[in-house]
Every structure is written in structure tokens, then in C-alpha cells.
Amino acid sequence: MGDISHHWNLDFLRNDPLDTAPKRVLIILNQPFSCSLLQRLWNSTCWHCCADGGANRLLDTLRQQNHNTAFYLPDLIRGDLDSLRPDVREYYDSKGVLVEKDDDQDSTDLMKCISAIIEKEKTEGTSQYEIILLGGLAGRLDQTIHTLSYLHKLRKVRDRVYAVTDDNVCWVLDSGEHIIEIDHTILGVTCGLLPVGIESTILSTSGLRWNLTNHTSSFDGLVSTSNHLVPGVDVWVKTSKPILWTIELREQFR
Questions:
Q1: pTM, whole model, 2 decimals?
Q2: Span 168-254: which CATH code?
Q3: Is the pLDDT of residue 1 over 50?
Q4: What is the CATH code of the structural domain delimited by 11-166?
């Protein structure tokens, strides 16, 4: 995949995702999120999975905002179930939601949910779903690092995996060239290119306020944080190694 030019758009963040959008699935992690973001991502995805305590977050958030909990029923709750509250399990059991316990101590709840998606694809004989993670970039630092590490590893076997919070959306740009469509109705101005999981990379960009041309980026050197998007212009990135791309969401969108 590294030598292929990739084209990215974030229509799954819109209230009206495109009819031609690819099939996507949603994994809800055990971190805070707003109902407005949940609604957008839920409506943009065709299958929904809670990673253990993510089911607590889902039910609590819906109840706090007086939303219809029966409308947002996940297709699966999966994990070692050490975080799933008894009252939450009782509720989803009563609604017929499948709850699967996986005691594998060598995998996290997120990894268990990814495995469920792979199993689903094999059973259906379908091509890869795009995966959206709701959460994973806030709270405990070790969990955030796990999310970033797993995104980095998944690029080898998955075409498109995004992590989304009320503040940011991020994903890994593999080595090669990328065009990123910028929709300023949903995206803020601040973005970054983060050399996570690599020693260094050679970066070139266009469409940013501070562009790079064949510039080395590493934790020991330059890291392009707090860069800005340019209104009305898509972003082009060329990178010699995988790099994490992140963009903030508009405040009014949250």
C-alpha cells in the first residue's frame, strides 16, 4: 500500500453522509463522548460494537441526555467484561443484545472488538469495512498510547481505521502520497503530523499554513504540531514512513 496515492474524506462526520459512502463499522470505547457526535457516527455506520465498558458510556450518555436508548442498541458488546456494570448488562440482555466474554489476557477489549469485525467479514465473505473508533484519545495516557500503537499496527492489515473524539479525529497515513479532503464545516483549523512509532520520516506537504518540503520529522527533531489548515484548500502529504495525522473538530460541531 505504501506506493499508492490515497484519497481521504471524512463524510462520516457529517449529519448527511454520502449515499455512496463505503460500509463502516463503529467501536465504542470506554471514554466520554457527546450525543451529537454519537448520532453522527452511528448514522454513518452499519454495525455497532461496544468494547466492554463502552456499553456503560453508551447507556449513561443516552440517559443523561434523555435520548431513546432503544434506538441505539449495539449489535455486540465484547471484552473481558470486567468493566461492564451489572445494570447495564441486564438492560442490554433484556433488549437481546449479544454480549460476548473473551478472557484472552493477551488482547485488549479494543483488540477483541477488531477480531469480531474480522470474524464478521469472513462469515459474510465481504470486503473490509472501514472502522471508526469512538474514543481512545483521552483519559489515561497508557490507553491513549495503546490506541496510537494499535492504529500504527493495523495499517498493515486494514485500509482505513479512524479514531474520533469530540475534539479530534486521527488516523495513520502510510508511506506514500495522500490527498485529504478538508470540509471546514466540520473541521477546525489546527492539525498535526506526528511521527509516532517510527524513528523518523521525510515529509512534504501542501495546503497547510506551514508547509514542509523533504523535511525530516522525528521526536528528536521537528514535530509538526499546531499547524493550520488553509481555507478552501485540500491537504497533500507525502511521507517516507507511516505518520499519524490529526485534525481538530469545529467547536460548534461538538
A1: 0.94
A2: 2.60.120.320
A3: no
A4: 3.40.50.10240
